[in-house]
Amino acid sequence: MINQTAKNFIRHDYSVVQCLNCAAYYIDPLIDFTLEEWKQLYSSEYFEYASEWLVKQREKDLNYRFAVIDNYVKKGNVNFLDIGCGEGNALLKAHKRGWNLNAVDISDLRNSEAKNNTAINFIESALPEAKLPENTYDVIYLDSVLEHVLNPLEYLTEIKRILAPGGIVYIGVPNEDALMNEVRKFAFILKGRKGLSTRLRPFDSPYHVVGFNYNSMNLIIDKAGLSKVYFRNFGRKFDFLGFKPGSFDFWQSLVTLPFEFIGALSKKDIYFEMILKKSY
């Protein structure tokens, strides 16, 4: 299903392909949306619906991430940068720690609490065009962002440049080789929809344009001159509670619930999170 806003910008037929060298998934040909078109797309419905259960789970997930981040952060004056800050919830967590708050995003979709927080230095821009200062940020937060950009290596290379000596980068991305994607692929075949991709959804929320697995993520991290100091493969369980009751996504998630647990046991869960440092 294609988002109605995206239909106004699509100028080509696109396919989801996998690189034979790095194993990453991407869209071919390269999507040629302008920055203004991307802004319209993300403003249309990206944060439209969240059940009470999902709101609580996101808060729980965020608390866990910051508990992990705290183990790697130096004491004292901390410069925090949230890339693709969205609603601004991570910024509010950093604010409670007394950190210096900075954010960059192509659109300002922050909630009212984050918008009214005068301590936040917000820049409306894509990261490469923001021209942020070199060797500055002690904690860079990048959750559910890399899969949305057409040039992830450029982003990681720029992140290395602006990362302060001894600083860390938190990254969260989906695992496109998760067991759940294989289950969805089989379900599509049974429905006679073999040609549809179960991985990237460039024109329907959540608008993923690049997909990573173990191999491709490790390769891009190494190419950017970064190295992992923490890594976890995990997935939120009972995701059907996060969808509108009775919707297609609700029933699909409910039926495939057992595979969520099998994926965790087989280390093919749906999400990666990691903490990186400069390796050279």
Characterise this structure.
This protein is of the alpha/beta class and 280 residues long. It has a single domain (4-278), classed as Vaccinia Virus protein VP39 (Rossmann fold, 3-Layer(aba) Sandwich), CATH 3.40.50. Helices cover 36% and strands 22% of the residues. It has helices spanning 4-7, 35-45, 52-70, 89-96, 112-115, 127-130, 152-162, 179-190, 214-223, 248-255, 257-265; strands spanning 15-18, 25-28, 79-83, 100-105, 120-124, 137-143, 163-174, 210-211, 226-234, 271-278. The strands form two sheets. It has a seven-stranded mixed beta sheet, with helices on both faces. The chain has a three-stranded antiparallel beta sheet with strand order 1-2-8, with no helix packed on it. The N and C termini lie far apart (44 Å).
Q: What is the CATH superfamily label? A: Vaccinia Virus protein VP39
Strand order of the largest sheet: 5-4-3-6-7-10-9
> How many separate domains?
1
What coarse outline follows from CA principal-axis ratios?
globular
Strand fraction equals 15-25%
CATH architectural group: 3-Layer(aba) Sandwich
CATH class: Alpha Beta
Report the uncertain regions: none
Structural class: alpha/beta
Mean pLDDT: 88
Termini separation (Å)? 44 Å
CA-atom Rg in angstroms: 19 Å
Sheet having the most strands: 7 strands, mixed
The helix count comes to 11
Helix percentage: 25-40%
CATH topology: Rossmann fold
Element-by-element helix/strand order: HEEHHEHEHEHEHEHEHEHHE
